[in-house]
Specification:
By secondary structure, the protein is of the alpha+beta class. The chain has 10 helices and 4 strands; from the N terminus they run βαβαββαααααααα. The chain has a 4-stranded mixed β-sheet with strand order 2-1-3-4, covered by helices on one side.
Length: 234
C-alpha cells in the first residue's frame, strides 16, 4: 500500500486519459489523491510536473512526476508488481507487444475520429462516423485474438488494452447520442458489446467512468465555449 499523500494524480473527471490512470491505480489497490484540474486553466503544479506537454494526466509518486497515460499505466503495473493484484500488462512478450500495438492504434488513429465528432458537420461528420465504425470492426477482431475466448482483452481480468480502450466508452456513448446512430452494435460488434458491459460493471471502473448524461452536458458546454467569438482587441 502507498503511504498517505505519496501518490497524487493530476487529471480531470471527463478526461479518458486520466481515467486510464485511475483504473490502473484501482486495479492495484493503490491509495491516491485525485487533484482536479480546471477547464481552460493549468495549475502551477501541472506546469511544473509536465513542462514538456503541459497536459494531464500526471502521476506524482513521492516527488517524481510521470507523464502520458499509457506510460503511467505501465509504471503503475511495474512499481506495484508485488501487490496481490494481477499484472496489467500481459506476461508473454508477444501478447504484450500486440496490446501495445492496439493501444497505439487507438490513440493515434481511432480516438482522433471520435474527437472530431464534436465539431464536424455534414460530410465530415459522416466520414468520421465511418472511420469509427471501421475501427470498431478492427477492435472486434483484436478482441478475438487478444482475449483467447475469455471475458476481457487481458483474459480473465481487465488488462492493459482493456484500460486503453475502455476509457473511451463514455465518449463513445456520447457520440452515439449526438449522432443518433449505434456504434457498438450487437449485430456487427457482438463481442465488443459484451465486453463493454463487463468492463463498465467492474469494481475498478464503476466509480471512475463518467455517466453518459453528465459527459453529454460537459460536451455541450465545451462546444459552446469553442464557438464563442474571440475577445475584441478594442
Amino acid at each position: 500500500m502507498a503511504k498517505q499523500g505519496e501518490v497524487r494524480l493530476l487529471g480531470a473527471w471527463p478526461s479518458p486519459f486520466a481515467i486510464r490512470a485511475r483504473i490502473a491505480l484501482n486495479l492495484k489497490s493503490v491509495e491516491y489523491e485525485f487533484l482536479q484540474e480546471n477547464l481552460g486553466t493549468k495549475s502551477q503544479l501541472l506546469l511544473k510536473s509536465n513542462p514538456v506537454h503541459k497536459k494531464i494526466p500526471v502521476l506524482i509518486h513521492g516527488d517524481r512526476p510521470i507523464c502520458e497515460s499509457l506510460v503511467i499505466v505501465q509504471y503503475i503495473d511495474e512499481v506495484w508488481s508485488s501487490s496481490s493484484a494481477p499484472s496489467i500488462l500481459p506476461s508473454d512478450p508477444y501478447d504484450r507487444a500486440i496490446a501495445r500495438f492496439w493501444a497505439a492504434y487507438l490513440d493515434d488513429k481511432w480516438f482522433p475520429s471520435l474527437s472530431a465528432l464534436r465539431t464536424a458537420k455534414g460530410g465530415e461528420r459522416a466520414a468520421a462516423m465511418e472511420r469509427l465504425r471501421e475501427g470498431l470492426g478492427l477492435m472486434e477482431g483484436a478482441f478475438g485474438e487478444c482475449s483467447k475466448g475469455k471475458a476481457f482483452f487481458g483474459g480473465d481480468r481487465i488488462g492493459f488494452l482493456d484500460i486503453a480502450f475502455g476509457c473511451f466508452l463514455g465518449w463513445l456513448r456520447v457520440a452515439e447520442k449526438t449522432g443518433g446512430a449505434k456504434l457498438l452494435d450487437d449485430a456487427k460488434t457482438p463481442r465488443l458489446c459484451g465486453w463493454a458491459e463487463r468492463f463498465s460493471a467492474d469494481d475498478s471502473v464503476k466509480g471512475v467512468l463518467p455517466e453518459t448524461e453528465k459527459l453529454l452536458e460537459f460536451s455541450k458546454m465545451l462546444l459552446a465555449k469553442m464557438q464563442q467569438p474571440p475577445p475584441s482587441n478594442s
